[in-house]
Amino acid sequence: xxxxxxxxxxEDVRDHEEFKADYLHEPVVSQFSFPLPPLGIQPKxxxxxxxGKELKNLQFRKGTTTLAFLYEPATPADQGGIIIxxxxxxxxxxxISSKSVMKILDIGDRMVATMAGGAADCQFWTRVxxxxxxLYELREKAPITVAAASKYFANVLYGYKGQGxxxxxxxxxxxxxxxxxxxVDSEGDRSSLNVCSVGSGSLNAYGILxxxxxxxxxxxxxxxxxxxxxxxxxxxxxxxxxxxNLVHISPEGKTRYPGRDVSQLYYExxxxxxxxxxxxxxxx
Amino acid sequence: MSIMxxxxxxxxxxxxxxxxxxxxxxxxxxxxxxxxxxQKKVHKISDKVYVGLAGFASDAKxxxxxxxxxxxLYELRENRKLKPEVLATMISNLCYQHRFGSFFTEPLVAGLDPxxxxxxxCAMDTIGCIAAPRDFVAVGTGQEYLLGVCETFWRxxxxxxDLFEATAQSILSALERDAASGWGAVVYxxxxxxxxxxxxxxxxx
Amino acid sequence: xxxxxxxxxxxxxxxxxxxxxxxxxxxxxxxMEFDGGVVVGTDSRTSAGSFISSRVTNKITPVTDxxxxxxxxxxxxxxxxxxxxxxxxxxxxxLEAEKVSIYRATQIFRQFLYNYxxxxxxxxxxxxxxxxxxxxLYALPIGGFVTRQRSTASGSGSTFVTGYLDKNWKPNxxxxxxxxxxxxxxxxxxxRDGSSGGVIRIGVIDKNGTDIKLYRPDGNDFPKFVAxxxxxxxxxxxxxxxx
Amino acid sequence: xxxxxxxxxxxxxxLDKGGAFSFDNCFRNMxxxxxGAAPPRLTSTGTTIVAASYNGGLVxxxxxxxxxxxxxxxxHCEKVHKLTESIYACGAGTAAxxxxxxKMLSSNLRLMELNTGKKARVITAMRQAKQHLFDYQxxxxxxxxxxGVDPTGPHLYECTANGTTMHKEFAAQGSGxxxxxxxxxxxxxxxxxxxxxKALVQRALHAGMSGDNASGNSLNLVIIRPxxxxxxxxxxxxxxxxxxxxxxxxxxxPGSTAVLKRKEIKYExxxxxDIH
Amino acid sequence: MSSIGTGYDLAAxxxxxxxxxxxxxxxxKAVDNSETMIAxxxxxxxxxxxxxxxxxxxxxxxxxxxxxxxxxxLGLGLAGVYPDCRAIRxxxxxxxxxxxxxxxxxxxxKKLAATxxxxxxxxxxxxxxxxxxxxxxxxxxxxxxxxxxxxxxxGLSYEYRAWAVGKNRQAAKAEIxxxxxxxLEMDQLVKEAVRIIMAIRDEGKDKNxxxxxxxxxxxxxxxxxxxxxxxxxxxxEWARRALDEDDLDD
Lengths: 284, 205, 243, 276, 250
Description:
The complex is a heteropentamer of chains A (284), B (205), C (243), D (276) and E (250).
Chain B: E1 10-15, E2 19-25, E3 28-30, E4 33-36, E5 42-46, E6 49-55, H1 57-78, H2 84-97, E7 105-112, E8 119-124, E9 130-131, E10 136-140, H3 143-153, H4 160-177, E11 185-191, E12 194-200
Antiparallel strand pairs in B: 1-2, 1-10, 2-11, 3-4, 5-6, 6-7, 7-8, 8-9, 11-12
Helix pairs in contact in B: 1-2, 3-4
Chain C: H1 6-9, E1 23-25, E2 29-34, E3 37-42, E4 46-48, E5 51-54, E6 60-64, E7 67-74, H2 75-96, H3 102-115, E8 122-130, E9 134-140, E10 147-148, E11 151-154, H4 162-168, H5 175-192, E12 200-206, E13 209-215, H6 236-242
Antiparallel strand pairs in C: 1-4, 1-7, 2-3, 2-11, 3-12, 4-5, 6-7, 7-8, 8-9, 9-10, 12-13
Helix pairs in contact in C: 2-3
Chain D: H1 3-15, H2 26-34, E1 44-45, E2 49-54, E3 57-63, E4 66-68, E5 71-74, E6 80-84, E7 87-94, H3 95-116, H4 122-135, E8 142-150, E9 153-159, E10 165-167, E11 170-173, H5 177-187, H6 194-211, E12 219-224, E13 229-235, E14 259-266
Antiparallel strand pairs in D: 1-7, 2-3, 2-11, 3-12, 4-5, 6-7, 7-8, 8-9, 9-10, 12-13
Helix pairs in contact in D: 3-4, 5-6
């Protein structure tokens, strides 16, 4: 399996490796493999050619806004850390297939991954990563770093590059090195960022983040920024909507906040500005 | 992607007792992006006759202009008010004239007979096939969701208030599941005395 | 997009889009000249794909009292050709106060078939009688080529019976002999050809006009054939046990 | 622009009021198609239509479902079109085409009746339909059963979109025709009486409606006798009825919908429309 | 042509108060003034003869033929304004070819005559001037025998047993009527035709004239051909003797 083949084949450690292989039954991380079509058929093209790109139940769940950013506490009363905020819509074409998808998936106590792209792809591979991380911690007697977890994730995705996986994930967490966000996608990209947004509504979210983000914020400011950015993204992007789920990861741990209806957020926002957003019926 | 869902938008009409309701969403998009939230798809043609045009926005606009032109010509020639049936036939013929190169818009007509106040609603496909049931019609991206929900929300002989609630709740339900429509909705309740236009609270995502 | 898009013209019955298989007369047409007239014989099957849309079609279309046209190919095309040519012949007959000769009528058919050879799928036999030339039979395959024939077969069923016709045609046949051979040939063709079938229609055109007779498969005078019975399909050792 | 020029302009616009097809959008539509936009669905009467003649008359019938893709676009659409008092046409195919073709036929036949002072004949209707449809080479998707009684007796013709016509004693068309024609082939007899013919047509329609996704809801019948035409329908067969009536009424209390803004449009009271 | 046009003769589109179209009558006059042309139908063929003046010795022999063909089997004899004759002949050939292409058989004489008559008639309706010529259409086939059609400038077309047009048509017709045409063999017919042309010739004008002649009949296998000069010369010789005998009888 892809995850298992990245052991260093260094001459010096080979004996040790062989010994381990022979006498220590190291847990196998994942024996999963996709049954692939024979004769070099590419699944993606095959589905496209034979069922058409228009077919509704083959349009995988897409359309999302996810964001995450790091911040430092502005006052000693604040904790700082990472804010992760996402919408909750799953759509297939114009059809909203779910209004309440949890797009922040746990990887560990202080680590989460967000999902954007194919929902099934994200959920499945996040589970594989989580399993790897757990086994890693059991084996190494120390929690895995965000960098290592995200690298494993990126390697897995790179192995399937070009076969039609659709994943855009942010692995966010607090480890011994501090807070970190790694953006990972199905093209094999992996990059460490302080402010990050992924999904069809990401550009809209970036607009808000870039305007209002400060490296030092109070916890409340940071949460407001997360909600606000998601709300604005869902407003412009028809692929995003529902409620805004928000997670705050601080040095102490992970806090999940209940979902807030983005439509409600928008009405509150408009009221705050005193702007009349209700359509005024015009005469014809 | 179908050209019919490029801009998005949904129109619904329901018939009651001497009243009809016609509801429209307000979104104007370009595929996934919402460009404007003040684009109603329902247009007044005469006092008691309204037309809804869902589909490709630029064609909807062209067709609306053609409809208004023909309606003007009709009133000048015939010197009488346009009945909703007559308007529907007019639009049907207009659309069918473009049978082999159609406008990508599905017209919907709702109104009351100017004299008898008999409600009339109908929907068409892009080449002008009229379907005029007695209960409700819907066109646009949310059509499939609307037809389902209206089956239960519609009742015989509703008065104007009940009809408004049923129409508003139907379109709100459809907007819950249709990503290409929404961002506010307007309901026109046409009775023999007046037309009530109400902007209802809808989701903004 | 454009509503004439290929996918919209094709049949999707499950989606309520109604099939548009072209209706064609996959046909057997047999005809023979005799001294003083012509005998034509046809089957009566009209099919749209694998569906038999009519089993009692009359493929012998009268154009004048002394002229018939036997149609094969796309049904709509051949019907229209017959209609238009009939109209032209009637118009000429009136304008010129003279009967149009069979040869010239054939040439009118040819003009049509040739001018629209790219749009139409039609092949016809023109059979008739006139005072100058007597009984005449012309074959016009797709494309507008004309030949006068003493004995001919066309349509999908013709391949099965050309040999039979070659064997049974002889010079100076009488009307009765011709009718017998033609009927037998149509019977043979419908027996083997999947797109021919139904009843047999035999038309005789001579100086008295046109006389079309119909033979039903359940009638006594319908040609009957017995196909060789098959051998049992069991292997020899199983066959032995069965006995 | 001089006065005459502007008059001519108005005149030209007036003339653009229907009749011939316009091909203005064809190039644009084909270009958009190449850009990858999918064409809209058209309503089609994926249908079962049936007709059978009996001793002296004719029974014709159709289901009432119109479909657009998988949606039932109309549950009670009228597929039995009246052409004249004693000639009717049932249609299958593209719904808009059927409406327009039958409308054209009925007006042409009526005009002819007024001009000649005689009742139109079925064969006239058939030939008009055939020539119109052949002109458009099948692109007008109208499949018709044209039947009626005229002074020469009862006649039934089948006319396809390509312009093929056939005279028949009994016929079925539409996506449900395979089921319907089987029933007709089995049970049709020459010289039936009216009740038998009506029962047969109804049975054939039931077969089509239950066997075909695109047919159903209810059926309409027309019985054409030499002296009188009787229209019956809509008849809802048992298997097309809603399995359970709705017990629970979804009735919203007034005020359940949040209204953000409202406006009232009053009608102008106009005593008479004087337009100068 | 007694009355003067008084303004009603300026175009073929105008009737005179007494119901005549002068332009057509003038066109007919152009034919009446031209050289005499006769056509005779005998037992098994048709001959057509015309007397032609030779205006100058510098002309090539037969430089202005009046006997032409519309198709192999259809002889045309054209009397009147010469360019009009050519135009009619071109049209006739065209129609003949069109018919051949459409129906793969030669155009029937009757059909060509009707077509030409229709064409000529069209020019009498006022759009242009009428044709100033008359056309004999001559044919022969085994079944129907010989046929003579004449198309006049008015668009009239009749079938004749024999006919004459041109300057001395009355005299020629008087001569023709004396013949028992149905009994005449082809060579006899040629001789009689020449005799008639010579008999009606204006006194003292027998210099610088020639006879052009075509025939179609059993002897030509139904093809319309010019009569060979030798045959004409022989016929002239015979005719001269016959005429001399007549003179002696008087």
